[in-house]
Amino acid sequence: MTTVRTAARLHFGFGNLSLVHARLYGGIGATLDFPRLVVEGDPAVGVTVTDETGSETSFRRTVESYAERATTLLDVDGVAITVRERLPRHVGLGSGTQLALAVYAATAAAHERSVDVREAAPALGRGGRSGIGVAGFESGGFLVDGGHPTSQFTTDRPADGEWTVPPVTARHELPEDWRFVLVLPDAEPGRNGDDEEASMRSVVESADPSLADEISAVLTRRLLPAAAMGRRREFGAAVAEIGRLNGAWYTDAQGGVFRPPVGRIVEALRTHPVLDGVGQSSWGPTVYGLTDVDAVESARAAGRDALDVADVDGEVLIAAPRNRGRRSTASWRNA
């Protein structure tokens, strides 16, 4: 039996969504140590899935789909997958990519195969825009990817084999005493699947190129130096600005710079003295803010207060940065 452990990621935004520039997308994000995904794989004939998280039927079907694809790609007889812990789905924490790669890695390890998850990701349907999820699975940390050549953009998904996962252009380990407060409101799931594809096409086809120039300046002159030097307040301020600029691209697609009710939560958190870098992860509805280990309880209380201000239920989680990729361990079960 092989156990694969990985965790969530935050997506702060993209470097460019305009067709005017040579590189499209260019994800910016960071890997967290919580919430976690834990998947076990055993060799088997055919595919079986055991879900110990009590999730909805659709989640189990998704796991089965990834397991079936993994066995086909690896040309093995089958796999028995057990999900011990799972990530919240469609809330902006990167659950899809982590699940696809974890199931693939567990299947490969169960059959004693050494694989390159980056190379396999396109065939699993992952890494088509942002490379942050794949890179986070590989190495963790704060990450920036180089995007795709704009010439590859089409209203249809490029055929398999015509694209690769965007390369990592910058990676830094974040200080271990930093903490992210995650506010997960009870709201409609973030966009995914065909809905996400349609929204992204619409945004890209009309994106203002000047926003990409502003983001580039924040990234190169503020965010990257702050990440390299471990300066939390400067890092947080730069992340918040990149999130705001990205939101300007999505105003029509999501109903504002931040999607409802995220905007009210962001505003409630933005002026709190223990929080920096407040924003929306990916399509949301997860809201994040940055603090340090000594201010965790104040940050948690701020998150609860923000939910009250927005008049929505939800939960508040605390996560440290994760400066390593997935962890795989093998063990033998008693016969």
Provide an overview of this structure.
The protein has 335 residues and is an alpha+beta fold. The protein has a single domain, classed as Ribosomal Protein S5, domain 2 (2-Layer Sandwich). The protein contains 10 helices and 12 strands. The protein has helices at 57-74, 95-110, 117-120, 132-139, 193-206, 209-229, 232-249, 251-254, 262-270, 296-310; strands at residues 2-16, 23-43, 46-51, 78-85, 142-145, 148-149, 168-172, 178-185, 276-280, 287-292, 314-319, 327-330. The strands form 2 sheets. Strands 1, 2, 3, 4, 5, 6, 7 and 12 form an 8-stranded mixed beta sheet that branches. A hairpin with a 6-residue loop joins β9 (276-280) and β10.
Keywords for this entry:
335 residues; alpha+beta; Ribosomal Protein S5, domain 2; 4-stranded antiparallel β-sheet; 10 helices; 27% strand
Question: What share of the residues lie within helices?
Answer: 25-40%
Q: Low-confidence runs (pLDDT<50, min 5 residues)? A: none
The biggest beta sheet reads:
8 strands, mixed
CATH topology: Ribosomal Protein S5, domain 2
Topology, number of strands = 12
Number of separate structural domains: 1
Brief write-up:
This protein has 335 residues and is an alpha+beta fold. The chain contains ten helices and twelve strands.
